[in-house]
Amino acid sequence: MTMATRSGGRFTANHKVGLLAAGMGLGMLGLGYAAVPFYRLFCQATGFNGTTQRATVAQAASIRVTGRPITIRFDANVAPGMKWIFRPLQVTQEGRVGERKMAYFYAKNISDHAIVGRAVYNVTPEQTGAYFHKIQCFCFSNQRLEAGQEVRMPVIYYVDPAMLKDDDASDVQEITLSYTFLPAAGG
What is the pTM for the complete model shown? Predict the structure, then answer.
């Protein structure tokens, strides 16, 4: 009998190594699929890589407005081949840290058919992502534009005053909020 066969109803060392390797392979495959959602959750929780935060109306109401001015710059892009015009209706917006503000973006579908898009976003400098809170945003869900349809899309946001206590972010005077629309599934 060779070592690769069962003897007496027990697995040999080769069988155990094979099962262990198969189990590790399945585990690594599972981690590969879980990595994207876990990374997204990590970024949303920490502001890593310029990921902004979501806030409720109640959370925003508890924030105090400071005297510290802040400028928000808006940037808008569309993925290559996506037949949309997309731009901010204001290039910059002045405000105070902690102040709720609303900005508008314009989008138009210039194709002859409906297109569903999804906006991905970030802020720069990256260290401000943990302090940039959006209360309402078109980026929270897919946007469907019919052929030729044009819309104004609001974003309501504030910059958390906790940023002023962060040595890496306290001296930031301007934050850029950038969006890129990509085709979404179902479009």
Answer: 0.71
